C-alpha cells in the first residue's frame, strides 16, 4: 500500500520541481508546456490504479470495474473541488487564507469527508 503512495508522491514532487525550474530557467518552454505539466501529476492517479490492480492480482473484469469506479470517484472529487472553488471566490475569506491556504483547508475537510466512506465497504 505505501509503495503506491510513495510512487505517487515522488512523481508529483518531481513534476512540481521541474515546473518550478522551468518557470525560472526557460519561461518560453514553461509557457509552451502550459497545462501539460500539472496533467502529469494527474496521471499519478492512473498509475496508482494500475499499481493497485497489479498488487491485488485482479482479473480483467475486476480490473475494469475497479478502474471505472476509481475514475468515477476521481470525477466526483474534481467536481466537488470545482464547486468549492467557485463558492470560495465569492466568499469573504480573510486575506491570509486567500487562494492556496483556503484550498488546502478545503481539501483537508473534503478528505475527512471521504474517509467516512472507508468503513462502508469491506
Automatic annotation (TrEMBL):
Q: How does it sit in the membrane?
A: Multi-pass membrane protein
GO cellular component assignments: endomembrane system; plasma membrane
**Any coiled-coil ranges, and where?**
none
Organism's domain of life?
Bacteria
Extract the InterPro entries matched here. Answer: NqrDE/RnfAE, NqrDE/RnfAE_oxidrdctase
Q: Does the keyword Transmembrane apply?
A: yes
Record's Pfam families? Answer: Rnf-Nqr
The alphabetical list of record keywords is: Membrane, Translocase, Transmembrane, Transmembrane helix, Transport
Q: Where in the cell is it found?
A: Endomembrane system
- Give me the segments passing through the membrane: 6-22, 34-54, 60-82, 102-121
What name does UniProt use for this protein? Electron transport complex subunit RsxA
Amino acid at each position: 500500500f505505501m509503495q503506491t503512495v510513495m510512487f505517487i508522491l515522488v512523481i508529483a514532487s518531481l513534476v512540481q520541481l521541474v515546473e518550478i525550474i522551468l518557470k525560472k530557467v526557460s519561461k518560453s518552454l514553461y509557457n509552451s508546456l502550459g497545462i501539460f505539466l500539472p496533467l502529469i501529476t494527474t496521471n499519478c492517479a492512473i498509475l496508482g490504479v494500475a499499481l493497485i490492480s497489479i498488487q491485488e492480482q485482479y482479473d480483467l473484469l475486476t480490473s475494469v470495474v475497479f478502474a471505472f469506479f476509481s475514475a468515477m470517484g476521481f470525477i466526483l472529487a474534481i467536481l466537488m473541488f470545482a464547486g468549492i472553488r467557485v463558492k470560495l471566490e465569492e466568499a469573504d475569506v480573510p486575506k491570509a487564507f486567500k487562494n492556496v491556504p483556503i484550498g488546502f483547508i478545503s481539501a483537508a475537510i473534503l478528505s475527512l469527508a471521504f474517509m467516512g466512506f472507508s468503513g462502508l465497504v469491506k
